[in-house]
Amino acid sequence: MAITMRDSYRLDKSLEIHHEAEGLKEDVHGRHPMDDMLRTERLPHIWCPGCGLGTALTCFLSALCRAELDLDKVVVVSGIGCTGRVAGYVRLDSFHTTHGRAIPFATGLKLGNPELKVVVFSGDGDLVTIGGNHFIHAARRNMDMTVICVNNFNYGMTGGQAGATTPIGGITSTSPYGNYEYPFNVSALAAASGAVYVARWTVLHARRLERSITEALLKPGFTLVEIISPCPTGWGRQHKQREGLDTLRYYHEHGVIRHGADPRETDIGLGGVIVEGKFVDIEKPTFLEQRERRLEQIRSGGKA
Questions:
Q1: Cis (ω within 30 of 0) for the bond into 44?
Q2: Which pLDDT belongs to residue 82?
Q3: Domains in the chain: ranges and CATH
């Protein structure tokens, strides 16, 4: 029997009783509403205190509930990195792939079984640095998948190195005097490549982020939600944000919501504003729809 998001999100009222080692005290409590959507046997997670990935994952799971998708047809694919661990924590069919190859793997899943709802959940280093070529071509083809890109401006897991989204002047382990390479604007890159839906939010704006992920999940075609997230260990401590809360204050002070803004005008500079909102929401046939149209033309004797 297919399990729906509505079923999985229902709060389990059953009580759990844990006896402490002394055998004297009992702690009675109910389960968390999202326990059925997580592989709780793999928790606690590996993420650092103050990391924004817990909030990003919670928003994603909440969005799945809102979208009321069939869990049996939802697939999560991720690559290497801190964000890539999401695939191992969700109680869904999931795949933890090689570095930079999450999108081509997801493309194969979609082509092999078009009924699947394919979600790529990974970081900026995996998606637009190591995997940048796959990112732009999936958007160009309008491959039917939702890409959630958690952008923390560095390679957090491997030592805080500079990446393709590190702002000019950013201090990292490989740019100790300040980064001097021009960075990618992830949202602008997706829009220019052909994405039909593009939105960006910080983890501070959790409710808006959840709504955008819901919209992205329900929209056919290549949809992107960029999540700006704290990395206190690899990025924050180099920029006077030693704790996650410091970065959230920064988001509160520098975040500006501009729905419909031209993605080319939403670059993120060091110490500058972070433009947030829904930038792109258009209609366009997906890759599979285009292929079917062409095949139908050929069957009916049409020419190229």
A1: yes
A2: 94
A3: 40-299 (3.40.50.970)
Angstrom CA distances, 100 to 35, 133, 214, 236, stand at: 29, 9, 25, 24
Q: What angle do the packed helices 206-218 and 53-67 form, to 10 degrees?
A: 50
- Angle at 295 (CA atoms; ends 293, 296), nearest 5 degrees: 65
Contact indicator for 91, 36 with CB cutoff of 8 Å: yes
C-alpha–C-alpha distance, residues 54 and 43, integer Å: 12
Please report the DSSP string for 39-103 in residue order: -GGG-S-SPPTT-SHHHHHHHHHHHHHHHT-BGGGEEEEE-SSTGGGHHHHBSSEEEE--TT-HH
What does each C-alpha distance from 81 to 117, 149, 152, 159, 174 come to in angstroms?
A: 23, 12, 11, 11, 17
pLDDT of residue 5: 42
Residue 28: exposure state from Cβ atoms within 10 A (0-12, 13-18, ≥19): exposed
Assigned token pair, 25: 């005290």
User: pTM for this structure?
Assistant: 0.88
pLDDT at 303: 63
Tokens of 256: 């500006």
Distances (CA, A) of 24 to 15, 21, 28, 30: 18, 8, 13, 20
- Return all residues near 283 (Cβ < 8 A) that are at least 6 apart: 196
Q: Which residue has the tokens 């959230």?
A: 248
- Give the chain's length: 304
Average pLDDT per consecutive 10 residues, the chain (304 residues; last block may be shorter): 42 40 48 82 91 96 94 95 94 94 97 97 96 97 98 93 96 96 98 98 97 98 97 93 94 97 97 97 97 92 67
- For residue 250, give the 3-state DSSP assignment: helix
Buried b (16+ CB within 10 A) or exposed e, 113-142: eeebbbbbbbbbbbbbbbbbebbbebbebb
